[in-house]
Design a protein that fits this description.
It is a single chain. This protein has 168 residues and is an all-alpha fold. The chain has a single domain (14-163), classed as dinb family like domain (Four Helix Bundle (Hemerythrin (Met), subunit A), Up-down Bundle), CATH 1.20.120.450. It is built from five helices and no strands. The protein has helices at 14-33, 38-42, 53-72, 99-118, 137-163. The relative contact order is 0.18.
C-alpha cells in the first residue's frame, strides 16, 4: 500500500489542527481500502458482525452528510443508503453495492464537508437541532475525528483479516 497521508502539523492554530487531523483520519480509511477488490471490500468481519470495509465507507459517507449537511447547514437532502427506514442500512446489503459508487459518494460528501467547514468559524452553531441541542462546528470536527478514529480501528482489523496487511 502506498501511504500518501500528510501528518498533521505539530504546531498550528486550532482550525488547521482539527482539519488536518480529520483529513488524516479520512485518508486512513482510504488507505485501509486501497488495492482491494470489490469482493474483498464486501467481506464481513467475524460472526455475528456483518461489518465490512465497504459498509464502513458507506457509513462514513452517511456520517459526513448527517453532520455537515443536516446538522451544521440544515440542508434538505435525503439520508443515504435507505437509512430513513433502516438504521443499519449503510452496513447491510453491501453484496449488491458498487464499491465505485460508494467511494464516489463518500468522496463527494468529504469534499462538501471541507467546503462547508472552510467557510465557517469554529464557534458557528449548527442550524438544525439534534437531540434538542445545537452543536458547534468545533464539536462536529472533534466528533468526526473520533468517529473516523474508532472506525479506522475496525478497518485495521478488517484489512488484516482480508490479506494480513497491518499498520496505522
Amino acid at each position: 500500500m502506498e501511504d500518501n497521508r500528510v501528518d498533521p502539523p505539530l504546531a498550528a492554530d486550532e482550525r488547521v489542527t482539527l482539519s488536518t487531523f480529520l483529513d488524516w483520519q479520512r485518508d486512513t480509511l482510504a488507505l485501509k481500502c486501497q488495492g482491494l477488490t470489490d469482493e474483498q471490500l464486501r467481506l464481513p468481519a467475524v460472526e455475528p458482525s456483518g461489518m465490512s470495509l465497504l459498509g464502513l465507507v458507506r457509513h462514513l459517507a452517511h456520517v459526513e452528510r448527517a453532520w455537515f449537511r443536516h446538522v451544521l447547514c440544515d440542508e434538505d437532502v435525503p439520508l443515504l443508503w435507505g437509512k430513513e427506514t433502516n438504521r443499519d442500512a449503510d452496513f447491510e446489503n453491501v453484496d449488491d453495492t458498487s464499491a465505485e459508487e460508494a467511494f464516489a459518494v463518500w468522496r463527494a460528501e468529504v469534499e462538501h464537508a471541507r467546503e462547508v467547514s472552510a467557510g465557517l468559524p469554529l464557534d458557528a452553531l449548527g442550524k438544525r437541532l439534534r437531540h434538542g441541542e445545537r452543536f458547534s462546528h468545533r464539536w462536529i470536527l472533534v466528533h468526526m475525528i473520533e468517529e473516523y478514529a474508532r472506525h479506522n480501528g475496525h478497518a485495521d482489523l478488517l484489512r488484516e483479516r482480508i490479506d494480513g496487511t497491518t499498520g496505522e
